[in-house]
């Protein structure tokens, strides 16, 4: 919204007020208002009138100069509806405010909170009569242009305004305002000022509506930088109007930026401006498309081609304003380039000091910035007060009244006539009472005095009261000698007149007390805790009276007496003190003994014998007869470590453990060999295993009875008994049956009873003098083979396909090779009896 002065009508001033509403190109006819109600208020907020502004015309703008090297160029289109009205106003020193409110903003806005309930306010201030500014023409934004803004890419947008009177304009980002509601989306009478700002989402603000990588040039109104992520952004710019350095007024334009996810084949990207003016050496950043050749023209006659995107330092030989060009892949049809302005006028260093940090009076800001070239012509202070929106100033030495204590981040932005710009940040701690520290409440011996201490980081004065036994009460370090309990109060007054105070209670003691624990018995070598209780926070000193050595200075300490000992404790408060003692009788702990390790054979018992105390407890108890007695019997199945815990009744209650290992020799795997059949008249060598010493019985037919492999030449069936001994003397036993039969021959029974009684359950041939069983097969009466094997002494268990076979007669055939190498074969039948 802007105004134009049309002249006088008598004493009244005539103005044309114009409202420009931006509308999407796809808006329906009914979404375009046929008129707009503009409400006028006096400068002090009184309602004047509401006028209907007619819809004059609508203009459409699209982005026409789309870069052909954008792979996916977006379509940008919007309309502007123009509404205007003429009003006559009586000249007034306070001026007037024109306002229009409408609801609601669209949802899905990226930088402000918008849920289809947030409206908008557009307004303009018509200045008053001072300096003749009531005949002024307000600035107006008229450079409407569709532009493609690609996310995370460099862009530039001309947001400048023009002023019919030729006044100078200063641009800055500012807040957008809410207004109107869903219940009354187009009020006839808009609300009076002030207006409520919208709420910005995290990482965005009124000063940074497009993020921290986008800025506006205060002189040209050009918005440039690196665009944020894709989305819809509300951007509001204020153009402040000055005439001969005197502020006239301002105009605001709110615009919706559409940031698209474009893909450019090549992008040149560095800062648009380098204007910190800190050195002749400038470090140029390069955020361009990687993997391309980069050509730099530094504007001073020096050029450089490089493939590196690292920061590039360049030193200028003289001051000046230089136009730097960065060209990326410049020999390609889709190469990209950009220009950057570099201002080399070192040094500009902003800084400030303050006077007064108390909430009772305004804080004075004193500009102490240093500038070597040109003059500082623009200041912007942001006092960091979140409670208000007008916590800014453009004065060089402003004042600001902080009404609440707290930490405030203050920012000073300065610009000089050479175009240099720098910011300085400092956090101010505002207080309602000046900070200071002083001596805490304290104890004092009646024989002594007390040196007080007070300190503040701020200049000021101290004063102490009451004036009772105190020396130098108007200093930070007075000396007091109270004879009775006294509360002193110290008052600090800083140089700005802010006052703070603190009370200090001095507890004067003529007697102090200490009491430690009762005498007791301890175990020799154990740590013991010494405790002392006193009636105040005194200094403690513990002394071992056996050695006269100080062993601690806390109220609770830990010592390890090597023998019986007495300890003395003294508590002191200056020249006042009190004493106590505690004694400990040291008793040696029991000497537990579980006995020597032992070894037993499997199944045997071990006798355990412990000593050293009065009470015993063995673990594990499951294989012991008497686990709570010193002497007990163990029957472990495996090697076991037995632990006995011993206590006594001599004064040391400590339980002391000891252990004994009972090694259990596993069962001896005595093996005399499998039962066998040999031909009468032949000898058989036995082969036993399982130990180290062997004993055979009876000795009949044996070559020896004390070796593991004697030879027998007996000709009658006999069972030999074997005893095997390990190196520990453990015994294992086994038997072997040797049968002597005529042969070579294959003996086959004629019946068997597979009933599971362990007798005659398996039908097998008995080969005598047969070195190899070639085959053994069984057939049922229909000639079906139901069993076969060639394993020695393996037989048929009477089952067919896993199920019991029927009782009856079955045919068998057996073949084997005898000791002479001849093949023997026998056939016959067997009866299965159930």
From TrEMBL:
Q: Which SUPFAM superfamilies match?
A: PKD domain
Which source organism?
Chitinophaga cymbidii
Q: Which residues form the PKD domain?
A: 278-344, 379-419
Q: What protein name applies here?
A: PKD domain-containing protein
Q: Which InterPro entries match?
A: Ig-like_fold, PKD/Chitinase_dom, PKD_dom, PKD_dom_sf, T9SS_type_B
């Amino acid at each position: 919204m802007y105004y134009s002065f049309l002249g006088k009508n008598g004493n009244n001033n005539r103005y044309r007020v114009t409202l420009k509403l931006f509308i999407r190109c796809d808006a329906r006819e009914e979404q375009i208002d046929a008129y707009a109600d503009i409400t006028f208020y006096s400068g002090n907020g009184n309602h004047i009138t509401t006028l209907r502004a007619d819809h004059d015309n609508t203009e459409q703008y699209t982005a026409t100069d789309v870069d052909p090297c954008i792979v996916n160029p977006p379509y940008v289109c919007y309309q502007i509806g123009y509404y205007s009205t003429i009003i006559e106003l009586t000249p007034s020193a306070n001026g007037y405010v024109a306002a229009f409110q409408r609801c609601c903003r669209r949802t899905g806005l990226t930088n402000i909170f918008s849920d289809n309930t947030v409206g908008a306010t557009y307004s303009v201030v018509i200045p008053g009569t001072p300096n003749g500014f009531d005949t002024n023409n307000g600035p107006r934004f008229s450079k409407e242009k569709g532009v493609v803004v690609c996310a995370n890419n460099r862009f530039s947008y001309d947001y400048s305004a023009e002023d019919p009177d030729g006044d100078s304009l200063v641009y800055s980002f500012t807040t957008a305002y809410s207004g109107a509601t869903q219940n009354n989306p187009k009020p006839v009478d808009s609300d009076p000022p002030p207006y409520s700002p919208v709420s910005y989402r995290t990482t965005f603000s009124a000063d940074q509506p497009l993020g921290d990588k986008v800025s506006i040039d205060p002189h040209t109104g050009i918005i440039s930088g690196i665009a944020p992520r894709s989305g819809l952004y509300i951007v509001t710019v204020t153009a402040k109007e000055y005439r001969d350095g005197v502020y006239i007024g301002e105009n605001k334009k709110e615009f919706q930026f559409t940031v698209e996810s474009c893909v450019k084949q090549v992008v040149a990207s560095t800062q648009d401006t380098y204007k910190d003016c800190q050195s002749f050496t400038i470090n140029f950043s390069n955020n361009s498309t990687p993997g391309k050749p980069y050509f730099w023209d530094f504007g001073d006659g020096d050029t450089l081609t490089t493939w590196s995107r690292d920061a590039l330092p360049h030193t200028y030989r003289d001051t000046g304003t230089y136009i730097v060009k960065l060209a990326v892949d410049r020999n390609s049809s889709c190469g990209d380039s950009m220009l950057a302005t570099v201002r080399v006028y070192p040094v500009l260093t902003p800084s400030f000091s303050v006077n007064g940090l108390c909430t009772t009076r305004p804080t004075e800001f004193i500009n102490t910035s240093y500038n070597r070239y040109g003059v500082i012509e623009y200041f912007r202070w942001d006092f960091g007060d979140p409670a208000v929106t007008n916590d800014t100033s453009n004065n060089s030495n402003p004042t600001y009244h902080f009404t609440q204590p707290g930490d405030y981040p203050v920012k000073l932005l300065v610009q000089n006539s050479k175009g240099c710009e720098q910011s300085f940040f400092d956090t101010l701690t505002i207080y309602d009472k000046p900070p200071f520290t002083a001596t805490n409440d304290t104890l004092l011996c009646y024989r002594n005095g007390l040196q007080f201490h007070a300190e503040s980081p701020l200049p000021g004065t101290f004063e102490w009261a009451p004036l009772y036994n105190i020396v130098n009460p108007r200093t930070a370090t007075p000396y007091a000698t109270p004879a009775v309990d006294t509360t002193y109060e110290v008052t600090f007054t800083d140089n700005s007149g802010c006052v703070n105070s603190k009370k200090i209670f001095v507890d004067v003691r003529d007697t102090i007390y200490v009491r430690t624990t009762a005498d007791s018995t301890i175990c020799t070598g154990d740590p013991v805790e010494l405790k002392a209780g006193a009636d105040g926070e005194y200094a403690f000193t513990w002394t071992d009276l056996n050695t006269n050595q100080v062993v601690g200075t806390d109220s609770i300490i830990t010592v390890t007496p090597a023998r019986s000992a007495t300890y003395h404790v003294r508590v002191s408060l200056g020249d006042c003190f009190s004493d106590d003692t505690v004694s400990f009788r040291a008793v040696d702990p029991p000497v537990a003994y579980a006995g020597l390790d032992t070894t037993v054979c499997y199944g045997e018992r071990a006798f355990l014998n412990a000593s050293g105390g009065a009470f015993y407890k063995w673990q594990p108890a499951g294989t012991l007869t008497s686990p709570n007695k010193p002497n007990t019997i163990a029957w472990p199945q495996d090697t076991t470590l037995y632990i006995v815990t011993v206590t006594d009744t001599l004064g040391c209650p400590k339980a002391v453990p000891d252990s004994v290992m009972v090694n259990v020799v596993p069962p001896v795997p005595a093996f005399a060999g499998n039962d066998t059949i040999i031909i009468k008249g032949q000898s058989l060598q036995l082969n036993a295993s399982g130990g180290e010493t062997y004993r055979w019985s009876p000795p009949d037919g044996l070559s020896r009875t004390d070796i593991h492999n004697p030879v027998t030449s007996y000709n009658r069936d006999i069972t030999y008994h074997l005893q095997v001994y390990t190196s520990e003397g453990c015994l294992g036993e086994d038997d072997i049956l040797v049968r002597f039969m005529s042969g070579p021959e294959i003996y086959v029974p004629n019946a068997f009873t597979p009933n599971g009684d362990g007798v005659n359950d398996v039908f097998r041939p008995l080969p005598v003098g047969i070195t190899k069983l070639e085959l053994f097969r069984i057939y049922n009466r229909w000639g079906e083979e139901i069993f076969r094997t060639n394993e020695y002494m393996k037989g048929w268990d009477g089952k067919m396909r896993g199920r019991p076979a029927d009782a009856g007669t079955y045919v068998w055939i057996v073949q084997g090779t005898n000791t002479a190498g001849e093949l023997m074969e026998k056939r016959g039948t067997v009866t299965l009896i159930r």
